[in-house]
Amino acid sequence: MVFLKKIVGFYIASSIHVAFAAYAFILLTFTSLNSSYDCDVAYFGFFGTIAAYNVIKYFSVYKLKKHQISKKFKLIFLLSLSAFVVALYFYFQLEIDAQFVALLALFITLLYGFSFFGWLSSGRNWVGFKVFLVALSWTLVTFLLPVVALKITITEIVVLQAVQRFVLIYALMCIFEIIDLQFDTIALQTLPQRIGIANTKKLGYFLLMVFIGIDVVIQNEILLLNLFFVLVIAGFLYFSNEKRSKYYSSFWVESIPIFWWLAQKLLTYF
């Protein structure tokens, strides 16, 4: 049991789980665009997520304690380096316009995680912008990158789908913001610190309603699978609080896009 707990802990800490979430969102994008699977985009998204998340989470730790790094962090470092090399390979398989989108997402990720030139603090410290930057970078990687790589014509429907992905990720981030209250300093002025937990939940519910509303505009109906997972997210949002364990968000909430894609895949056989 202890060994299994260590495996799950490493799986989450090394950002493999969140990478599967990004991968699932990309697969959902392929389906929503009625397009074929593109391994270059999907694998770039997966391995790029591992590398980017681990750099943001552990770079400062490594810089301050590089002589006291545990075996676990050494393994995460090796995994991250390997993931970066693989992501770089798939990046160069993309065409130039898709590479530009990937670079834009990388820039936003670096803007979120690092300060620049000593005068521009990291985006996570910008009041009101933390969640926006995360939702934007995820939308770029999991939606716009597949659109551009597959040369999908950007119509009003595609723009609405991009907005739909953005508001969905923003709603999911509301859960993370609430859970992270137990770790965030008051100086960060995160969403629930500024408007309160209740209003953060109301914002999340509103964004989920926008998501369903866009479904109606695009499909002229509410897709039941989408409605089901929106209700699942709403449930997680309702029961979220700062006393929840780290697995509530870092495992279960991040599992939602994975189960969403699996359910969609399963339904294709009926």
Would you give an account of this structure?
The longest helix is centred in the first third of the chain and has 27 residues, at 39-65. The radius of gyration is 19 Å and the shape is globular. It is built from twelve helices and no strands. It is mostly helical. Mean pLDDT is 89; it is low at 116-120. The chain has helices at 2-13, 16-32, 39-65, 71-91, 96-113, 130-149, 156-179, 191-195, 197-219, 224-238, 246-253, 256-267. Helices cover 75% and strands 0% of the residues.
Query: How many helices does DSSP assign?
Result: 12
Number of strands: 0
Strand content: under 5%
Sheet/helix structural class: mainly alpha
Overall mean confidence score, pLDDT: 89
Topology:
Layout: H1 2-13, H2 16-32, H3 39-65, H4 71-91, H5 96-113, H6 130-149, H7 156-179, H8 191-195, H9 197-219, H10 224-238, H11 246-253, H12 256-267
Helix pairs in contact: 2-3, 2-6, 2-12, 3-4, 3-5, 5-6, 6-7, 7-9, 7-11, 9-10, 10-12
Structural descriptors:
globular, 0% strand, single chain, 270 residues, 75% helix, mainly alpha, 12 helices
Summarize the structure.
The chain is mostly helical and 270 residues long. It contains 12 helices and no strands. It is globular.
